[in-house]
Amino acid sequence: MSKLKLTMAVSHYDHVIDIALKRVEVEGVELNMMELPLHDIFQRTVGFADFDIAEMSMAKYVSMRSQGDDRLIALPVFLSRVARHSAIYVRRDRIKTAADFAGKRIGVPEWAQTAAVYGRGVIAHELGVDLRSIHWVQAGLGEAGRAEKVPLNLPAGLELTPISDKSLTQMLDKGELDGLVCATPPNCFHTNPDVVRFYENPTEAEMAYAKNKKILPIMHGVVVRKAVLDAHPWVAGNLFHAFETARRHSVKRMAFPGATAVPVPWITDAVKRAQEVMGKDFWPYGVEENRPTLEAFCQFAYEQGVCHRLMKPEELFPAQTLQTVRV
Q1: What CATH number does residue 138 fall under?
Q2: Using CB atoms within 10 A as the burial measure, which of 176, 185, 235, 276 is most buried?
Q3: Helix (H, G, I), strand (E, B), or coil: what is residue 234?
């Protein structure tokens, strides 16, 4: 029997490379793998569902699903995870304490950017700041003209102003903004001494948060076109099994003593530290293994108007993957 031919677009990850190199195969599937820039993948996936399988922003995905758009169905496979206390940047001459956020102008590249959802979750739930007390500004981070990709359902009393002719970096550098919540550092963070991270030691804050709450923010997942799963429901389980196998191979490489799988000194020490914070399996796939993170994210996204209704983790993934079998 011939294999089902599917296209898959993802960024380059060590925990996916074994699938790309066919060291790990998806049973019954012949994959046409494409490594593309993230912006292109997201734009083509959200707008046109161009690929059978694709890397996907979690915020865009939960927003679409909350609005009844089920063209894409996610697998509980989480390619990118980044803690986001470090995503909060401020002008230190204006914001020094949590109370200082009230009345300030804070920028975001997109309200429905996943990193921004988690960063605002930290501001609201860890710092105790009412998000409605902040004047929010949406614009491109380094270049002007960026716009939202999904419709929003902002809560009453929350002010979000899009600006199309300036970048967030320009405005923060000139003092037209008091802070940013964004995935990558603005250029002025490296050149303007008044632009700093709100958390003086963000890594320590992120590790304590992860250890105490079992939340390690999920940035990107993997989605499959619903039409594929409707016609071939077995694809979900086989894909999950392949991603899980490739992930375990990658973690084993990172943890192997006496050698380095990536050009990063002390990588095995970093693995040990991650295990101390998150447990032996510190980068798990699956729903139950990630329930605290998924529930927190769904709550943040709903409170902030990214989701149009409160989603449950079980609604986001195929039934075949809710009870995962470890490999």
Answers
A1: 3.40.190.10
A2: 235
A3: helix
Residue 94 has pLDDT above 70, yes or no: yes
In a domain, 144, yes or no: yes
> Letter for the amino acid at 237?
G
Q: Which residues pair with 30 in a beta bridge?
A: 5
Q: Within a domain: residue 57?
A: yes
> Which of 288, 278, 110, 104 is CA-nearest to residue 183?
110
Which amino acid is residue 109, in one-letter code? P
Where do the DSSP E strands lie in 98-243?
105-108, 135-138, 159-162, 179-181, 195-197, 218-225
pLDDT tens by residue, 51-77? 999 999 999 999 999 999 999 999 999
**DSSP annotation of 138:** E
Same domain, 108 and 183: yes
The residue range of the domain holding 244 is 4-81+218-290+311-321
Q: Strand, helix or coil at 209?
A: helix
* Positive or negative: CA dihedral 27, 28, 33, 39: negative
What order do you get walking across the sheet with 88-91 strand by strand?
Answer: 159-162, 135-138, 105-108, 179-181, 88-91, 195-197
**pTM recorded for the entire structure:** 0.95
